């Protein structure tokens, strides 16, 4: 536990002192340093350095597609902002949205998109960016909006048969994915309803003052050429994702669609910088709208691919730490400690959930948070005559949904970069993600629709 304890203490003090700047490099160095501490302990236990490096390389290789996706999403965000796609969403969306119901509606919209596409990442990278841009003009704090977006995106992701984590969790128990989703919905739907009620109550405190959004609606047409035809680009991109087109080709299509919108609709507004330079900056470095209004400039600026590099650095550092922890046997030892404590059905579910969260924190990867506890606890559920659906549901309720709450986890690093809010800041408002593991344990405690192995 020593490397993990040092990691958590060091990250706590670092974030307390430097705030959001922690992700600019200091968190990465802490992860690498704690990885070296784990390596030293492993070396004293007889683990060879080369074996540790093989584990690290395997971990990094598993994130290679995610890294490419991150770079493409940086370019997507830039092209969609410069092409007027996100501004159009803000312009038309603020006309329909109202502060008193913005948060629950945002969660529902993200839930629907994630359910259709099977991807929480694609959801936050498309509709999530637009909702974040609407948040401040409507007077809603962005960290609360980020929590609502995360809640909706992961609700839809969990219940989508297209989701990779949903299929992975089902596979760990050899359960049919549809059967897994039906059983999962018993805890997932009530949890999401509770989260929506909380968001509605919070929204009521922000009244009905929409003057800022009206002011923005007046200024946006002066910067961009806005019309409904622009929405063909995001709709086509979401349709491709929903039709199971792999993420990289689908996002690439979205980037080219954004460039087309720049050329067709925003050519006049980009005259000052030149079309080629505008495309170059939007995709690769930084896009800033041509406006003297500082608030508008800050709201509509993006960092392109370059803006994703700190996140990629964080992921690589986290994979270094997690790879060494796994190679040295520390992850398995921690999960064994949880297994030894089980004495009842409730304790078995709690130990599985705790193990999944522990792996999310220490290995920094949601897939490992599903696979490692799935391997370790499958026999425990069978011994207690609990059907494998109980285990697969717990893996999702604890492994999948808690990953975006941890800043150095691949999901937390990604979501905080996309939404522009540190995971530690939005985590207290991601109510669905916080409540899901507790709901899984509660349903077992109350014996609500618990399926058992038929003798």
Question: What does this protein look like?
Answer:
This protein is an all-alpha fold and 455 residues long. It folds into two domains: 2-59 and 309-445, no CATH class; 65-305, no CATH class. Helix content is 74%, strand content 0%. The longest helix has 28 residues, at 177-204. It starts with a helix and ends in a 10-residue tail after the last helix. The model has no long low-confidence stretch (mean pLDDT 85).
Structure summarized in a few sentences:
By secondary structure, the chain is mainly alpha-helical.
Domain tally: 2
Number of helices: 23
The SSE order reads HHHHHHHHHHHHHHHHHHHHHHH
> What profile does the largest beta sheet have?
none
The coarse overall form would be: globular
Radius of gyration: 22 Å
Sheet-strand content, in percent, reads: under 5%
Structural class: mainly alpha
- Counting DSSP E segments of at least 2 residues, the number of strands comes to 0
Alpha carbon gap, first and last residue: 40 Å
Mean pLDDT: 85
Percent of residues in helices comes to: over 70%
Low-confidence stretches: none
Key words describing this protein structure:
455 residues; mainly alpha; 2 domains; 0% strand
Write the SSE topology.
Blueprint: H1 2-18, H2 26-44, H3 49-62, H4 64-82, H5 85-96, H6 102-117, H7 120-135, H8 142-159, H9 164-172, H10 177-204, H11 211-223, H12 232-242, H13 247-265, H14 275-284, H15 294-299, H16 309-327, H17 330-340, H18 345-362, H19 366-383, H20 388-402, H21 410-419, H22 423-426, H23 431-445
